[in-house]
Specification:
Elements lengths: L8 H13 L10 E5 L15 H6 L1 H7 L3 E4 L3 E2 L11 E5 L6 H13 L3 E6 L9 H8 L12 E2 L22 E5 L5 E6 L14 H17 L3 E4 L38 H13 L6 E4 L6 H4 L10 E2 L2 H4 L5 H17 L5 E3 L8 H4 L22 H15 L5 E5 L20 H5 L44 H4 L6 H14 L8 E2 L7 E6 L2 E6 L5 E2 L4 E5 L7 E2 L3 E6 L2
Parallel strand pairs: 1-2, 1-13, 2-5, 5-9, 9-10, 10-11, 12-13
Antiparallel strand pairs: 3-4, 6-8, 7-8, 14-15, 15-16, 16-20, 17-19, 18-20
The structure holds alpha-D-glucopyranose.
The site of alpha-D-glucopyranose has 9 residues, from loops.
């Protein structure tokens, strides 16, 4: 599956057809999928924001890394109030990122390299600049235009109180009151996120039909699937009852049951419908759910045989660097997902969470989405974080199923903690008046070349978020071919994982390495992770990969090793 040299267009077409129709039946069961956050990946235009031509120009680097697929966070037309998760036209590319032709070129170039492409789909809400929402604002209360969104009359004598007590994931109320055509305050609309992101009403058939059209638009262009944003949120509980927030609940619903806007049963019919659409298409297209649910067992409801193909395993991402907890979440995941016929997925980082090279060394609680800044409690020690991140990834990539990587983690990038307040852009920062830092720290443009402007992110040196001075040593060119670098560790792990078909393998637990160890066998590979600080005596065999130095038959703390056993 590795790309070897440039091909002529005739060869390309032949190879691409063969790749899409015959290679890798149900590729998503074992794929390593690399998340590209387009605005921070590579910037060909030089305006400080990454773009599609930037992605195309670096596909060889991704082929060299050894991934199977890429997932692109939104690049569709958007006022960028939430970095593209506020879409104003679902069937066009935002000029910041290029054009539809740039998208087609990128897709073809990825397929040439046998890299599949899945794109983000944001169905819970649109931008307030979407033409439907603009029509809704101009129309009267209770009109068909308003019925595409969640408009409601307010409570109180003059409708001056919001329809219920729901709060936005980004902080503050989840309702905003509009001014009607007569200049008077009028109805309220629901936005589970920013006020610029009004929620659609998924009980409305017109909304459902519009999304069928959008799916087909991208499937016709040749995408291999979709990552579905907020896939647990589309349907709200009948009557929109008040919710008494559960102190255990993450804002996306991670820990809490019975939140009236997360995980409602009726949402599953939407995905059954979409699955049928994907199956109309040739090839092997996949749907992946971003659904923050309390357990892997609940998450597995999104991937029953007639629904989505994959769901992000957020219970795994949220697990601390602790052997007992890791063993449990792996065990539960490997029952829950295969139990409904789906692969388990594994993920440690994405554009919404503190990068795992920092998160795994935090010593204070840090709820998802809050981020870290200079005065946050429990600051991570960088060396500890990096060692744990490398060990955690070495553990993850040995697990059967499909794994997600987030751009920059292969360079060992930490969370950027000291972004100045006036440079921050996450709506969370604004909606909480700086009380929560938000997610900018994991979104800083990634370094390619140690000595170039903006570390090779572009040629001009512009960058939409400032890049830290220490990143020169983490740049891709500073790590390429360097033994022991995080990049070379990722490359080695991905190559071995592929050569030994670990994604399609199975897990057999091994006892006897103590309470700090996560130890198992997958095929002929024995994997041992030491989450503690006391060295663990290793069994005999050839060390084929190791997240850190291993000497004298001992596995140091915060280190994971792969050993070939007979
Ligand atoms: C998802 C996205 C996040 C976005 C939110 C609203 O959680 O991953 O980045 O802010 O949805 O669309």
């Amino acid at each position: 599956m590795q790309y070897a040299g440039r091909m002529t267009s005739a060869e390309t077409i032949e190879r691409t057809d063969a790749f899409l129709t015959t290679v890798g039946g149900e590729w998503w069961r074992t794929a390593v999928i690399y998340q590209i956050y387009p605005r921070s990946f590579a910037d060909a235009s030089g305006d400080g924001i990454g773009d599609l031509p930037g992605i195309t120009s670096h596909l060889d680097d991704l082929a060299h890394l050894g991934i199977d697929a890429i997932w692109l966070s939104p690049f569709q037309r958007s006022p960028q109030k939430d970095a593209g998760y506020d879409v104003s036209d679902y069937c066009d590319v935002d000029p910041l990122f290029g054009t539809l032709a740039d998208f087609d070129d990128m897709l073809a170039a990825a397929h040439e390299r046998s890299i599949r492409v899945i794109v983000d789909l944001v169905p819970n809400h649109s931008s307030d600049q979407h033409e439907w929402f603009q029509q809704a604002l101009a129309a009267a209360p209770h009109s068909t235009e308003r019925a595409r969104y969640m408009f409601r009359d307010g409570k109180g004598e003059n409708g001056e109180l919001p329809p219920n007590n729901w709060e936005s994931v980004f902080g503050g109320p989840a309702w905003t009151r509009v001014v009607e055509a007569d200049g008077e305050p009028g109805q309220w609309y629901l936005h589970l996120f920013d006020s610029s992101q009004p929620d659609f009403d998924w009980s409305n058939e017109e909304v459902r039909e519009e999304f069928r059209r959008i799916l087909r638009f991208w499937l016709d262009r040749g995408v291999d699937g979709f990552r579905v944003d907020v896939a647990h949120g589309l349907v709200k509980a009948e009557g929109l009852p008040d919710y008494i927030p559960n102190p255990e609940a993450g804002s996306m619903g991670g820990e809490a049951e019975n939140v009236p806007y997360w995980g409602q049963d009726a949402v599953h019919e939407v995905y059954r419908d979409w699955r049928r659409i994907l199956e109309e298409y040739q090839g092997d297209r996949a749907l992946a759910a971003e659904a923050w649910l309390p357990t892997a067992a609940r998450t597995a409801e999104w991937v029953r045989h007639d629904e989505m193909h994959q769901a992000f395993n957020f219970p795994y991402l949220e697990t601390k660097w602790n052997a007992a907890d890791l063993r449990e979440v792996i065990e539960v995941s490997l029952h829950a997902f295969p139990g409904v016929g789906a692969p388990s997925t594994w993920v440690l980082s994405n554009h919404d969470v503190v990068r795992h090279a920092s998160r795994l060394a935090l010593t204070a609680e840090n709820p998802q989405g809050h981020g870290i800044g200079p005065d946050s409690p429990g600051q991570p020690i960088p060396e500890v974080g990096l060692a744990r991140a490398r060990a955690a990834t070495t553990l993850m990539l040995a697990l059967p199923g499909s794994a997600y990587l987030y751009q920059g983690e292969e360079l060992g990038l930490p969370e950027v903690i000291d972004i100045p307040g006036d440079a921050r852009q996450d709506p969370t920062w604004f909606r909480t008046n700086g009380e929560r830092y938000g997610r900018d720290g994991c979104r800083v443009p990634i370094p390619w070349n140690a000595d170039a402007p903006a570390y090779g992110f572009n040629a001009t040196g512009a960058s939409w978020l400032p890049q830290p001075a220490e990143w020169a040593t983490l740049a891709r060119d500073a790590q390429t071919g360097v033994e022991g670098s995080t990049l070379e560790l990722y490359r080695a792990l991905l190559a071995e994982r592929r050569a030994r078909s670990l994604g399609a393998g199975s897990l057999e637990w091994i006892d006897g390495y103590g309470t700090d160890a996560v130890a198992f066998r997958n095929g002929n590979v024995t994997v041992i992770a030491n989450t503690g600080s006391t060295p663990i005596a290793l069994p005999g065999g050839i060390v084929i990969a190791s997240s850190g130095p291993v000497a004298d038959g001992e596995l140091p703390g915060d280190t994971t090793v792969w050993i070939e056993t007979a």
